[in-house]
């Protein structure tokens, strides 16, 4: 006898049976024959070989598991798969995936019972020929024997697979015995019970489908009612509404609710303008629980309408700006996800309408299932509706702040949703920001950015007046320090280009790359506001500010001009001031109306050449000039003379008109004090010279003694005042200014330090408006000394005559 091929199907199947049962080949002969018969049968599912129906069932299952996003993703992937011709048996693959995804522990539904009914047949059942049951003689007889089903056993059999057919058979006009179950693990009927039974498969299926009709008497079966019973009209109860009440089935209510979800009035559920909500019409004959459930579900439609109305109105408003349009786009994106869920629900409802067999409630749409499945979408729409209310009348950075406020919620799902919307809404703001700090360009057509520009301001006031913070538009996720730095970065770039005429590309100033090209970049940036975002702003701020200060100090000698102000306008160059006063004395004693500025300018140049001032930079010396103040009647040259220092270009940003006015006021005060010292020195020298001449006139000794004492007191006073002004005011303030300038990180720090220096000098020299009133006698003393010196000179000249 030839040895059988070890790789033949029969040998492999026999080996499999031996391995599973753990017996020899002789002991598994009967099981082997049974396995051969099962393999030879036409085992096929009841689901129609329709790729679309299987895909819809998969989407329905994903929706039932509250995985709406996965359902939408599956729909997109299935569309791509359908458009490609790589796979031929797409239906088989989809059905396999659906079968593998089913939970094996789940109790089989009625539809799975239909599958078992079709699957139990051997080849003779695969055709429309009559069904003959005769137990195979080769099958083992050690299965548990089961007699004819009774009414009691039918109650426990109605919820599981094929055994439930016995229940339906009891309800028939001539109850036949149940068909045998040939699936492994199910009991077989006793011998002889099924012998001679002739019944077509279509007839048995018809009995199954009609078992749940209301016309048949009910049993004690626990089987779930089918969708046919769900869609049937509910009998009117005693006490229902009076005449005119309309019977409404739950199926019709579900269909209405699906329309309401889209903002469309249904047949029985409509929008009430008076109450501003959806209501179930009063004549609908519904139980209170169904009515309340329908109203709760209809809230989803009200939320949808609220959001849709906002987006429709704002999408057409161009003045809403880019941030507002991004907000509308984010709302549209969420609504699209919501519409995908509705499409899945509509597809399931359509599938139930088109299905050839009735599905049980466990597979159909009900109000309670909708309530569960739409819980998460309802929470999302509630969050969006709250955002819409909170964002009314806002735009730009203010709108971004309103959205950011909702990220503080403790609900992680709501926070995740709002953070996603914030990444979309803030993307235009971050685009404005990066365009500003890296290019110095401000393209804010609808005034949404927190940096405002005034195009009417000229270049000489660019730093002070052209750019400012628009505080209502500052996003709440940015600090005021960050906004100030952002303002300074762009302002520095424009100052370099327009005032300093430095056209160096910003890429050479800032070694930072842009990182807000997409909303995803913005979302990543928001996850690390304190590090990544702060780091980018700080890097751009330090680089641009350092470059600007280098240009001002090296190219425009800002610090040299500041020191020149100290030497010439605050009388820090002592030899120059003393020599200038000596040269100007003959000119300034004349009436102010007889002075000529070019003569005084010539004297100034002579004083410069004769002192250490000649070693200063020509750029500084050419800015030093003479200025004559407004002439009043009786003024002399001493009253109207002043030094001046011309400033223009970038340094005029630091030495503004207000600053130069303070310098002029301080110079006049110091110049008058220096003149008084000069006068007292001349008086003292005169007294020394006349002391010997007047010794022969003892009658004048007392008067001369009093004059010497008075002159000494005046000299002491003026020396004390000059000491105070020079050391306690000027030197201390100047040292503080210089230290602050050396530590300054940007131009604003230098400007603030310089203004603080001038303010200290003016107030401590008692030149401010309050001190003028309280200390008016001080000016009178200086004026009196000047007039006394002039009168003394005239008396001396007369005596000499």
TrEMBL record:
GO terms for cellular component: centrosome; microtubule; spindle pole. Residues 254-555 form the Gamma tubulin complex component protein N-terminal domain. Gene3D superfamilies: Gamma-tubulin complex, C-terminal domain (1.20.120.1900). Residues 143-197, 209-241 are annotated as: Disordered. Belongs to the TUBGCP family. The keyword Cytoplasm applies. It comes from the Eukaryota. Residues 147-172 have a biased composition (Low complexity). This is Gamma-tubulin complex component 3 isoform 1.
